[in-house]
Amino acid sequence: MATIDYPEPVRILITQLKRLPGIGPKSAERIAVWMLQQGKEWSGVFVEAVGGAGRSVVECATCGFFASLERGCAICDGIERDRSRLCVVEQPADILPLERSGAYRGQYHALRGRISPLDNIGPDDLRIAELIERLKEEAFEEVILALRSDVEGEATANYLGEILREFPSLVVSRLAQGMPAGAGLDSADELTLMRALEGRIGVR
User: Which of 84, 104, 106, 127 is nearest to 190 (CA)?
Assistant: First the structure.
């Protein structure tokens, strides 16, 4: 006897929702059903919002943050930013907590991940080559490594530390006090981030 299932369009929606980070099969099903119950007017607005973001938002080729096709990158195009300091983060979203802290107004470089052999992510999979090019072309005085303090974050920081020896005049530092072991930028409050930036220590 055949079992009853959702119509195919709903099954496709659930399948796509399951691809989102942190969304399992049950959560995807609940979200899909909730979305359908909101009616066509709401779903149309949602579809347009997702489509609009996909059409008009791109990755900044310089820093890796989100840029608008119309307005460019708010960071790289900012006229009142400190051009002597470069803060290296793992993901573009890590930039926002630092910005909201108000303690840092320099440049950023998002690696788009971190070295993780278990996940088959090596240095060549990250935006490290782009980082080296920026350091050669721009007059930075300091690089701040704002990476997680777990195993993968330490491995990435150590790898970058070795590469940055190529630039002997460059001051290399890491976030210091206030960042608990294993924590990321997305879980730290603004005061913690401010103290971590102010108390950063030199790597060499």
Answer: 104
pLDDT of residue 3: 80
Q: Do domains 8-56 and 80-202 have the same CATH topology?
A: no
In CATH, the number for domain 80-202 is 3.40.1360.10
Strand partners, 66: 59
Are 90 and 183 in contact by the 8 Å Cβ rule? The answer is: no
CB-based contact 107:85 (threshold 8 Å)? yes
User: Distance (Å, rounded) from C-alpha 189 to C-alpha 193?
Assistant: 6
Q: Of the given ranges (60-64, 87-91, 174-178), which has the lowest mean pLDDT?
A: 174-178
| pLDDT at residue 29 tops 90 | yes
Domain ranges, ordered by start, for the chain: 8-56, 80-202
Q: Does 1.10.8.420 match the CATH number of domain 8-56?
A: yes
What per-residue confidence (pLDDT) applies to 126? 96
> How far is C-alpha 132 from the geometric centre of its chain's CA atoms?
19
Task: Output the pLDDT for position 175.
Answer: 78
Torsion, Cα 12 17 18 21, to 10 degrees, reads 160
d(CA 145, CA 140): 14
Average pLDDT, the chain: 88
